[in-house]
UniProtKB/TrEMBL annotation:
Coiled coil: none annotated. It is an enzyme of class 5 (isomerase). This is Phosphoglucomutase. GO terms for biological process: carbohydrate metabolic process; purine ribonucleoside salvage. Residues 40-181, 211-314, 323-441 form the Alpha-D-phosphohexomutase alpha/beta/alpha domain. The keyword Magnesium applies. GO terms for molecular function: magnesium ion binding; phosphoglucomutase activity; phosphopentomutase activity. Pfam families: PGM_PMM_I (PF02878), PGM_PMM_II (PF02879), PGM_PMM_III (PF02880). Its EC number is 5.4.2.2. The gene is pgm. It comes from Cellvibrio japonicus (strain Ueda107). Its cofactor is Mg(2+).
Amino acid sequence: MPISPYAGKLLPLDMLVDLPQLESAYYNNKPDVSIPEQRVSFGTSGHRGSSLNTSFNENHVLAITQAICDYRSKEGINGPLFIGIDTHALSEPAQISAVEVLAANGVNIMLAKGGDYTPTPAISHAILTYNKGRATGLSDGIVITPSHNPPDNGGFKYNPTNGGPADSDITNWIQARANELLQNQLRDVKRMNYLQAVKASTTHHHDYVQAYVSDLYKVIDMDAIRGANIHMGADPLGGAGIHYWQAIADMYQLNLKVLNTSVDKTFAFMTADWDGKIRMDPSSAYTMQGMVARRHEYDVAFACDTDHDRHGIVAPSCGLLPPNHYLAVAIEFLFQHRPQWGVNTAVGKTLVSSAMIDKVAQKLGRRLHEVPVGFKWFAPGLYDGSLGFGGEESAGASFLRIDGSVWTTDKDGIIPALLSAEIKAKTGRDPGECYKALADEFGHAAEARVEAPANSEQKKALAKLSAAQITSTELAGDAIEQIITHAPANNAPLGGIKVVTGSGWFAARPSGTEEIYKIYAESFKGKDHLQQLISEAQTIVDKAIA
């Protein structure tokens, strides 16, 4: 795809989001459920959209929240509901709408103390902490965030009683019920005035910062980081963890400097991503240019996206680590430095994550748990401790506490960031140096993700491809060894296809929102071989879905 001339640069003021227009559209634009783009649609991370194109508006939030209340009633979930927002402009109005409905339904709401922003992992942590040892009266949660998406976006996701992202059986039910409520002009939505709602006896305030930060020593060796005096730089990217990093530094007496303490809902301080749009994506070299330029000032530096469920690691030796590189480093380190984890504890990865992880797991003698895209697939294993680590190529990960019990069942950008400092403290090497050692041992991988055009019918065909429809026997000069349409770990449909050879692989999946499909590819023969692999992958897929 063409790189924008604005990529890696600050945008001019006239290209920033118009905040008054955005909020006005939230209240004034009313979705038409006969238009697919304006219906409630739960993807891998909840319902997302923009008020400007009537895909994330007040009526959506009212309907989704009532649908969640109805789901809770159906399932007998009657404990407190932990709710938090990130710093996107649409998050606060969406929380107001949600609270009006939750209070009217008699739900015990746990708002953030002092109206603070709340990272996704703090919600997951709160749910699991509350539910520990309980069989009834269980809690669940709502996170209002579109993750790292542009400033004009809003997002709304539900975390059930296991603390992780809701599985598709739950989101399908909530989605159908919400659209039914929209269709019926919100007739069955219970709602009360916000000022009454926040004063209701069922509305409470919870200190998410204290609860989460004070528990961190149980998952990260803070003594080792402090003892080695690791000099860290942390950039919240103007997101929900804005007050967490200083609290972490103070509580554990760490040599940690918070690089950006401002919240600006236009995110004017962010350099634009590859396409000229602002995204708070800590895995993008375009958005992380400022931190990369300062990498030699710190032993290790890191950033998290707006809801702090993704991480980006910057090392003096190499700059920004690609997510796949850091996942492999983290896995190798954790399984060698967590002796209380069980011998059968497995390594979790998605099918589009690096084969380097496979090699590391084999070296460690650990079972590989390979699942489709979506962190929800890791939640059960992290919950019961059978998975020590779950990670996605898009820089989302979580792992167990030091004692082998559950920490979070949703992505947590904060603990992988702090882990990079523990790695430096205990090995004397930054994560970039650790990855180089892995690459020297197993081979240097070249990777890419590209997009190719596909209409709706072609995307449907791709999602249902069978191995028999791939007639090629070779890929980029190597014999095809595997054609995968279902995940090895749980036989869940990939929603696309993965083709594997002895020296590389590609996977293809349709986009849920655009007329494209995505190709993920990796080669252990270098960049030229990677380009050949991608070219042939597109030919193979186009032929199969023609």
